[in-house]
């Protein structure tokens, strides 16, 4: 691996992570404008955020596993494409139903980008350099949330709430081109996808997040049951989606 390619993985990963953090912060600053523009009631407006949260949390574990199986670069490009296209369509849409549906798709894209950025850094940096990039990753989390509030407020004031989503389009396009050019293409693991584990993890995590955000105890109970089944099923797999050694202590 050349020094140039090694050096570009960090800014690509941090910019992608910053992008999804900034997007979440923008929602908070533009929520009122979105509600007024689309004539949404407060319960319906909450789904602009909830739809994203459900798919982001529900698919996070599966997305992380897919990056192991399909290769970091390939799955990262897929995530960028989903995130960028959904952001574009949200910005161009004037339909409340479509915006909520596209926010769910955007959450799926983010669930791919978030774990893959960290995985890319873990794959490409070792020793003290790895410790430094993890520190940069943590700093990016704080900066992304703070700047997102400022950028979101500025775009909403100067343009409209749609601008907060449309700004993602050129940034994801830039990241897509940089990834193709500079991120090394490493083969994924040669093993099959655990479809049953994938379905259980998505249902369990989505039910848990949905239950916590809406105070629905039946959903929380469903999540506990499904996630217990998931852990039990994965404990019998040679290559589980989730390292069960995490639960030993």
Automatic annotation (TrEMBL):
MF terms (GO), sorted A to Z: transmembrane transporter activity
Annotated Gene Ontology cellular component terms: plasma membrane
Membrane topology type: Multi-pass membrane protein
Subcellular location: Cell membrane
Lineage: superkingdom: Bacteria
Keywords noted in UniProt: Membrane, Transmembrane, Transmembrane helix, Transport
Transmembrane domains' residue ranges: 45-63, 75-94, 100-122, 134-159, 165-183, 195-211, 217-233
InterPro entries with a match to the protein in the record: MFS, MFS_dom, MFS_trans_sf, Sugar_transporter_CS
Record-annotated Major facilitator superfamily (MFS) profile domain positions: 9-249
The protein's name: Major facilitator superfamily (MFS) profile domain-containing protein
UniProt organism field: Fructobacillus tropaeoli
């Amino acid at each position: 691996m050349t020094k140039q390619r090694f050096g570009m993985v960090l800014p690509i990963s941090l910019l992608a992570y910053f992008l999804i953090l900034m997007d979440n912060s923008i929602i908070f600053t533009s929520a009122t404008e979105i509600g007024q523009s689309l004539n949404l009631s407060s319960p319906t407006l909450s789904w602009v955020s909830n739809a994203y949260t459900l798919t982001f949390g529900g698919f996070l574990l599966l997305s992380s596993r897919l990056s192991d199986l399909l290769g970091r670069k390939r799955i990262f490009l897929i995530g960028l494409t989903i995130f960028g296209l959904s952001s574009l369509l949200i910005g161009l849409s004037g339909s409340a139903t479509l915006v909520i549906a596209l926010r769910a798709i955007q959450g799926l894209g983010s669930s791919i980008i978030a774990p893959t950025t960290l995985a890319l850094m873990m794959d490409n940096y070792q020793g003290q350099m790895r410790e430094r990039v993890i520190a940069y990753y943590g700093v990016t989390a704080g900066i992304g949330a703070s700047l997102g509030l400022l950028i979101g407020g500025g775009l909403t004031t100067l343009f409209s709430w749609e601008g907060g989503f449309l700004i993602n389009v050129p940034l994801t396009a830039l990241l897509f081109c940089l990834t193709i050019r500079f991120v090394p293409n490493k083969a994924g693991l040669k093993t099959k996808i655990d479809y049953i584990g994938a379905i259980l993890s998505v249902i369990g995590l989505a039910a848990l997040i949905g239950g916590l955000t809406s105070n629905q105890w039946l959903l929380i109970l469903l999540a506990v049951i499904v996630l217990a089944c998931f852990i039990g099923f994965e404990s019998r797999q040679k290559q589980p989606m989730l390292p069960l050694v995490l639960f030993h202590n």
